[in-house]
Amino acid sequence: MQNFLIRVLINAVALWAAAGLIDGISFGDDDAWTSKVVTIVLVALVFGLVNAVIRPIAKVLSFPFVVLTLGLFTFIVNAFMLQITEWIAGPLGLAFTIKEFFWDAVFGAVIITIVSWLLSVVLPDGDDD
Fold first, then answer.
1. How many CA atoms lie within 13 A of 25 on its CB side?
2. Alpha helices (H) in 54-128, listed in sequence order
3. What is the average per-residue pLDDT within 84-93?
4. Any stretches that span the bilayer, and where are they (predicted)?
5. What pLDDT is stored for residue 29 in this prediction?
6. Domain for residue 88, yes or no?
7. What is the pLDDT of residue 123?
8. Helix crossing, 73-89 with 101-122: angle to 10°?
9. What angle do CA 14, 37, 2 make, to 5 degrees?
10. H-helix or E-strand containing 97?
11. Virtual CA dihedral for 35, 1, 86, 113, nearest 10 degrees?
12. pLDDT tens-digit profile of 39-88?
């Protein structure tokens, strides 16, 4: 359970960083910080579920492209996961939007990947036992 909570926290920080650095990614128009924090955490939960369920399938299907591009196609797969998260968050009532699918999602995926990796290195995940 602790590992799951740490992963959600890492995803939330990474999504917040992407929204802060890219104008095309946003978490609603409400200025209240409490509602934004709740929205970011809930979107991080959705993002984690999307990565756990859909990403393995997408990685298998995109494997030839990943090999041909020496791994760069992984960013496109990550951008697709971010877009799926937006599509799921909308009907759930979560104010998470990506204005331009391709570039905003790709740059957001790059930022999320970097921030998640950095935080995973710094924070323990409980697998070291």
1. 28
2. 55-61, 63-68, 73-89, 101-122
3. 90
4. 34-54, 61-81, 101-123
5. 67
6. yes
7. 76
8. 100
9. 65
10. strand 97-98
11. 110
12. 899 999 999 999 889 999 999 999 999 999 998 898 899 999 999 999 99
Inside any domain, residue 52: yes
Residue linked to tokens 């934004």: 36
pLDDT band of residue 5 (cuts 50, 70, 90) is confident
Residue 128 lies in a domain: no
Q: Is the pLDDT at 124 greater than 70, yes or no?
A: no
Which residue(s) pair with 23 in the sheet?
Answer: none
Range of the domain at 56: 2-122
Beta-sheet pairing, 97-98 with 25-26: antiparallel
- φ/ψ (deg, to 5) at 72: -70, -25
Q: Quick one: which of 48, 47, 46, 75 has its CA closest to 62?
A: 75
